[in-house]
Amino acid sequence: MKKLLGILLAATMLLSLAACGNDAPPPVEDNSQNEVSTSNGDEGNVGDDFHIGIVTGSVSQSEDDRRGAEAFQAKYGEDRVKLAIYPDNFNDELETTIQTIVNLSDDPDMKAIVMNQSVPGTTEAFRKIKERRPDILCIAGESHEDLPEIGSAADLVCNNDFVARGYLIIRTAHELGCDTFVHISFPRHMSYETMSRRVAVMKAACEEFGMKFVMETAPDPTSDVGVPGAQAYILEKVPEWVNTYGENAAYFCTNDAHTEPLLKQLLEYGGYFIEADLPSPLMGYPGALGIDLTAEAGDFEKILAKVEASVVEQGGAGKFGTWAYSYGYVTSAGLAQHAMNVINGESELCDMDDIAKAYKEFSPKANWNGSNYTNVSTGVKAENVFLVYQDTYIMGDPGRFMGATDVEVPESYFTVK
Question: How does pLDDT run across 210-223, given as a tens digit for each residue?
Fold first, then answer.
């Protein structure tokens, strides 16, 4: 009995100490994700308790992607934004790629990881991250892996809109007076769902607008002929194509290495070029035009102005187009901005308007649009996978945006295959 009374007395004393002391405050709800601070400057609502990681390719392989990540880091500070680089030969170094991504989750303050481009291994890396840190937002930009697959691991996926753009590129060509559309590719690319579906959409759009659709095959730069052989083929064939299809034909190629020689020859022999596969004023134009953009590096408005002036000087006004801001640059910076907006409670993760708002932070004069990815086999739209695109800019004196982001793409095109 005495022992029981002693225990009760001790418990009473402990409770009294806890109630009166300052060493054991009551638990407080953790709202760290919603706290707002501007301790790193006046660049917007930036919390103090989280970091954002961005993984890109190297400058030598994916310069625009990397520069976009660096621009976001410059805006919010190195203490806030952590950058990493996946291997150049990512297909041969899969485990290194996965570990590079996963390592960012070792940071206890990491709240979002953005991949651009989402090379093979991204899906597995995101799965590993979610197992250990489900609180981290995993965002994939321009996936190399199947969209439904990466969408099962990522919180958000954003790719260039191969469906809507298939329609809008043809529509723009028609508006500019083109009567023929020439698509240049090779079997490896045509085995990809994104590119084969886009071809099907382009064919259907040409039928709608009364244009002739032509498929031309060029060497794969990864084949034995390499990049020099593939580019030499384009240089040789363009004069023949222009002679066959006329100067009112528009051309499109699926490979970056083909773009520069194609632009160079079209400027000399005639023809139209609406926009590149992954558009940017830096895609093919500097080499084709023979201009140095070192002084304008990172300033896309100055880059576009210099490219446009050279296009006009060489007689291409009203026939050559691009996106005013690099897709790779804006994807890195824009998706990181979107992640920050979501963490700060200012945006919804899977809202196209909010995604476009974040992209526009780094492309202020261009508009963006997009829609949910539709699985062509099932007809089901993925809630967290988006296909996005920027308005097309046609260079001239003056140049003009074509208003492509305001066009309503007919619903039937999203299930064309």
Answer: 999 999 999 998 88
Inter-helix orientation angle 94-103/122-132, to 10°: 40
User: Hey, which bits of 254-294 come out as E strands?
Assistant: 272-273
Q: What is the Cβ-side half-sphere exposure of residue 370, based on CA atoms within 13 angstroms?
A: 29
DSSP result, 135-191: TSEEEEEEESS-HHHHHTT-SEEEEE-TTHHHHHHHHHHHHTT--EEEEEE-HHHHT
pLDDT level of residue 332 (50, 70, 90 thresholds): very high
HSE-CB at 79 with a 13 A cutoff on CA atoms is: 7
Cα 368 from Cα 359, distance rounded (Å): 7
pTM assigned to the model: 0.82
Per-residue tokens: 379 = 């007809």
Confidence of residue 377 (pLDDT cuts 50, 70, 90): confident
pLDDT in the model for residue 297: 85
- Strand order of the β-sheet with 249-253 is 212-217, 180-185, 249-253, 272-273, 320-322, 393-395, 400-401
How far apart CA 115 and CA 122 sit, in angstroms, is 8
